[in-house]
Design a protein that fits this description.
This protein is an alpha+beta fold and 674 residues long. Helices cover 38% and strands 16% of the residues.
């Protein structure tokens, strides 16, 4: 659950790993490294054949891992202003280490207990939903490639005759646009049943299926509803009986509100530890996409089951073949970057294969990584967003430092000649739009503001201002292969798709499995629409302000209003139209920005304002454009002086531009779907 277009969308995303982390920089590295322990149980990449650690490679033992984490986590939490965290490491079918850091509740100074303290893993919840789907696939009750409508009691429209399938949902390639309405509520009053949430509105499919990754909470919730209908059990009951029970996950639940027996064990959530104010229990309406609450110990059991290909002790939640199918079936969109598997996504590092999923609610931030070939898993969850979004940086730094310490290997190296590097940098430079966006929704403005740019540097490297390092500065990327760049200070890569000699798409490793950036056409570009908005508002504002100012000046100097007849009539009409358009469109833009400032505002309670302002602008903006054109036509044919004629043209163009802006950004209309 993580925001992508602008910072407010991080909270509403229900796990969008990668970009948000990259946007928010905090130096959270401990002041000094913990010395390596001398043991030897997990070899480095260069010693894989012998089983003996390479020189300087730490061995993954409980003692070494605990010493290392004790040096990393307390400093990281304090530096990031994060109240508490739990970290779990599994290895060879066992919990190697599980440990809490900081506080589950600041007011009572209650420490985090990995066995009993519940955290909200956000979209890590999806892995349990996909496991449930694969259980039913294994039983022959579901087919990943059938029209999903065969399992539903309402219709999901096809796109160009192509239906949605569960495989597309699992790989985030249904083509559905982003949804934000009623995503998370801060109390039970905002809770919707899964059926109500899904049937209220089916998002428009803005891409062809199977070709463009666009992360979708709605599609995951839809899959959870399929589990509910096909199994004949509520989704919560199904997960309780078929995942929690066989794995012994006694301190876990998707239910909302949390069952009374678990409520005393739930960690409080915080914006920042220094704020000290506990937040209310978040209600995730697309529950299968992110409503899980679980202890670190329980998440360790889930990791072990997947690393053991479905087995946990004497229990089994998936057959070995089905588990391998989940982990190994990948969809290649933009090679050589990481890919989506079935529910999991690749997060390969140092030459080691990793499948993973991250997750965010408003206050909890988590990450789960499995290394199937090494039989190792790592899980972290934090109960605070932290200073400047530090939680995202902490989890990324922990994963990379863990891999560098215990699973080292070479970075992707390579080089292109200087002339080629500069040519390719110039080709990729420009403005791009996120594939995870809304085209039809009222808050489309957020995605306009969140468009990403790529800049070519003089030395042939490139910079993406939104992709920040841990120090808060934009990363610099050096080309290591044709149209493949690597962070000069880390393992992450950028790759581009080139068509007819032009870069049309790019992505980067942390987000490439489920999100790409496509070249923005001029008619959707923030570089076009934002100047239209600013200039248009400016022209209308000056016209409105001139109204009382000119009246005061005339009164002061005792000068009569010079215009008469039709000249005076059109003069008054354009001033009134400017005022009404300014207020109407300004209110709509203000509402969109206000709604995006808090998930509470992205709720059905805001529908009446969305309806009202969209309808108002549906009337006002076209009428304003007509008045602007009529005024320009009259003034240009009148005997008025050239400044008045020039300004009439400016106002006409401003009115037309704002009308285009309103249409393109879905401000005109009625629907409150977004």
């Amino acid at each position: 659950m993580r925001l992508t277009a602008v910072s407010c969308l991080i909270a509403m995303s229900l796990a969008l790993p990668g970009l948000a982390t990259a946007r928010q920089g905090q130096d959270i590295k401990p002041p000094a490294p913990v010395p390596d322990a001398p043991a030897a149980t997990l070899p480095g990449a260069d010693a894989a054949a012998t089983g003996v650690p390479a020189p300087g490679v730490a061995s993954l033992t409980r003692a070494d891992a605990e010493a290392w984490l004790d040096g990393f986590m307390p400093y990281a939490l304090k530096r990031g202003d994060i109240a508490g965290s739990v970290v779990v490491i599994v290895k060879d079918g066992q919990i190697l280490l599980q440990k809490g850091y900081g506080y589950a509740d600041l007011a009572s100074r209650k420490p985090v207990d990995p066995e009993t303290t519940l955290f909200r893993p956000g979209s890590v919840s999806k892995l349990l939903t996909w496991t449930a789907v694969m259980q039913l696939v294994e039983q022959g009750k579901l087919d990943l490639d059938k029209d999903i409508n065969e399992y539903l009691d309402f219709k999901v429209p096809a796109r160009d005759g192509k239906p949605v399938t569960l495989r597309q949902a699992m790989t985030h390639t249904t083509g559905m646009e982003e949804t934000a309405r009623a995503l998370i509520a801060n109390d039970e009053k905002g809770q919707l049943s899964l059926e109500t949430y899904l049937k209220h509105w089916v998002p428009t499919r803005i891409y062809d299926p199977g070709v463009t990754p666009s992360y979708s909470n709605y599609a995951t919730a839809l899959a959870g509803y399929v589990v509910q209908r096909v199994s004949g059990m509520s989704f919560d009951d199904y997960i309780d009986q078929h995942i929690f029970k066989p794995l012994g996950m006694q301190h876990s639940s998707f239910r909302q509100p949390l069952p009374k027996a678990l409520q005393p064990l739930m960690s409080s959530g915080y914006s920042k530890a220094s704020d000290g104010k506990a937040k209310s229990y978040e209600i995730v309406n697309p529950a299968p996409a992110g409503s899980l609450a679980a202890t670190g110990a329980d998440m360790g059991k889930f990791m072990i089951a997947h690393l053991n290909n479905g087995a946990y002790g004497d229990a089994r939640i998936l057959s070995e073949a089905t588990a391998r199918q989940m982990h190994d079936t990948t969809l290649t969109i933009l090679p050589p970057l990481n890919r989506m598997a079935l529910g999991f996504y690749e997060a390969n590092i140092n030459g080691h294969r990793s499948v993973a999923h991250a997750g965010d609610t408003q206050w909890f931030h988590s990450d789960l990584h499995l290394f199937p070939d090494d039989n190792v898993g790592l899980y972290i969850s934090m109960n605070s967003t932290g200073k400047e979004g530090a939680a995202g940086v902490v989890r990324t730094a922990l994963f990379q430092a863990f891999a560098d310490r215990y699973l080292p290997g070479p970075l992707a190296e390579g080089k292109v000649d200087e002339a080629t590097a500069k040519q390719h940098a110039a080709q990729i430079a420009g403005r791009y739009e996120n594939s995870r966006r809304s085209d039809d929704g009222f808050v489309a403005l957020a995605y306009l503001l969140g468009q990403t740019t790529v800049a070519a540097n003089e030395d042939g490297t490139i910079t993406v201002p939104d992709l920040l390092g841990a120090n808060g500065a934009p990363k610099k990327w050096r080309e290591v292969a044709p149209y493949v760049w690597r962070d000069v200070d880390g393992p992450d890569r950028i790759a581009a798709q080139v068509v007819d000699g032009k870069v049309v798409r790019f992505s980067t490793d942390p987000i490439s499995p489920f999100m790409v950036f496509d070249r923005t056409p001029w008619y959707r570009s923030g570089g076009v629409f934002l100047p239209i908005l600013v200039v248009g508002f400016g022209a209308l504002l000056l016209t409105v302000l001139a109204w009382p100012v000119s009246a005061l000046v005339r009164r002061h100097y005792k000068v009569r209003y010079a215009l008469t007849g039709s000249d005076a009539t059109w003069h008054k009409r354009i001033r009134i139209a400017s005022l009404v358009v300014l207020l109407s469109l300004g209110a709509a833009v203000g509402l969109a920005v206000w709604m995006l400032s808090s998930l509470d505002m992205l709720s059905p309670s805001s529908d009446k304002w969305v309806h009202t302002l969209r309808l108002l602008n549906l009337v006002v903006l076209p009428l304003g454009a007509l008045v602007g054109l009529g005024n320009a036509w009259h003034v240009l044919r009148s005997g008025r002086r050239w400044p008045a004629k020039l300004w009439s043209v400016v106002l006409a163009l401003s009115m037309l531009g704002l009308l285009w802006f309103g249409i393109a950004q879905n401000i005109l209309g009625y629907s409150a779907n977004y």
